[in-house]
Design brief:
By secondary structure, the protein is of the alpha/beta class. 43% of the residues lie in helices and 18% in strands.
Length: 267
């Protein structure tokens, strides 16, 4: 599989098509395979590239490995620069949406347009969040403890139910379960990343055209983040994907793909 070296690390990716570059950033426990339902549709019009973040499959996370938002933001920015194709379209889902948001905040010159599919994280007080609120971090820590003790599926069930509600793991297609198992140990690195919450100032600073996508049947905390960001990001569009939970690109790929392609065609 192809890769580009960023700060001494080979960032691998899957690709399809040609033309203007469209980069996709996966979420927690994901990798380049997480956008399988998008590759053919996006590759028909763009050079679609689905990245595996540092230490995600086909790499591994080792004790002491750097698996943080800041490291991955730097990797995405470095990848875009190494690609040498000018500004790109950037799509991120869940944790990948948070990474994409931070790339846009810190490196706006690298992005033509931004797509955030239920970006993960917390809101600070300027966006209506509670001080020191970190239910997500607590859940991930509990899951990581199970994974560290060898109970891989037990930990993955905790993560799945936190984002998708009771029974979410059992409802996942087998290919997504395989991806989760292959990346389970990355949660040991992620649980201490101390992710910075979204702020009003950061949202106001992003003037890149942005599409915010949410699942109609997703949990309310994801809609709350979109509600807050759309109030203060100057150039946004919102689309709700019907018959979809947090895994909206898998739950309803036809609608998801069309929404993204329609947005990109306008930008």
């Amino acid at each position: 599989m192809p890769s580009l070296e960023v700060d001494g690390y080979p960032v691998s990716y899957a690709e399809a098509g040609s033309g203007a570059p469209l980069l996709m950033i996966h979420g927690t426990l994901g990798d380049q395979r997480s956008f399988g339902p998008q590759m053919a549709a996006f590759g028909a019009k763009y050079h679609a590239m689905s990245l595996s973040m540092r230490h995600a499959w086909p790499g591994t996370w080792e004790e002491g490995g750097n698996f943080t938002i800041d490291r991955h933001v730097a990797d995405v920015a470095g990848f875009i620069k190494a690609l040498g194709a000018g500004p790109v379209y950037l799509l991120g889902h869940s944790r990948g949406g948070h990474i994409a948001f931070r790339v846009a905040e810190r490196h706006p010159e690298l992005i033509k347009a931004l797509i955030l599919a239920e970006p993960g994280g917390e809101l600070d007080e300027s966006l209506g969040g509670a001080p020191a609120s970190s239910q997500q971090a607590a859940g991930f820590s509990a899951a990581a403890r199970k994974i560290g003790a060898g109970d891989i599926d037990g930990g993955l069930i905790v993560v799945a139910e936190q984002s998708g509600g009771p029974g979410a793991w059992d409802k996942r297609p087998e290919e997504k379960k395989v991806i989760g198992r292959d990346n389970a140990r990355t949660l040991l690195g992620q649980m201490n990343e101390q992710r910075k919450p979204y702020s009003r100032a950061a949202a106001e600073a992003i003037r890149i055209p942005t599409l915010l996508l949410g699942g109609a049947d997703s949990r309310p905390n994801f809609a709350k983040i979109i509600d807050a960001l759309i109030r203060f990001m100057p150039d946004t569009q919102r689309v709700t994907v019907p018959k979809a939970t947090h895994g909206l690109n898998y739950d309803n790929p036809e609608f998801f793909n069309k929404a993204v392609l329609d947005f990109l065609a306008a930008h």
